[in-house]
Design goal:
Blueprint: H1 2-22, E1 31-32, E2 34-36, H2 41-55, E3 58-59, E4 63-64, H3 67-75, E5 81-83
Parallel strand pairs: 1-3, 2-4, 2-5
Length: 105
């Protein structure tokens, strides 16, 4: 039953990574920089090998800087994906930011 509750989270994260990996900026073989909420650190560590095999891309060691830190790092252009459990307010949202909500399990 616990695995079924994680399915929506896995699907949303996979979709976000797919969007990044399919863009022309992040062609196959590049490294995707990711950090943010500490709640996803263990999950992302377990996904690295499968993601690299499926896409040819890889993402750097996930740094758990907190959800606010993920948004700040993304806004500053220091990472490609900044994971957070809260949405940026419109005034704080960097241009081109896509917010995909996730649920902590």
């Amino acid at each position: 039953m616990k695995r079924l509750r994680k399915l929506p989270v896995i699907a949303l994260l996979s979709a976000a990574l797919l969007v990044v990996s399919s863009s022309t900026v992040n062609a196959t073989g590049n490294t995707i920089r990711v950090n943010g909420a500490s709640s996803l650190a263990t999950f992302l560590d377990k996904c690295k090998a499968s993601y690299a095999t499926a896409t040819g891309d890889q993402f750097t060691g996930y740094t758990a800087v907190g959800s606010g830190g993920g948004k700040t790092q993304f806004g500053a252009g220091n990472v490609d994906i900044g994971l957070s459990d809260s949405e940026n307010k419109n005034a704080d949202k960097p241009a081109g930011m896509l917010h995909i909500p996730f649920v902590a399990w």
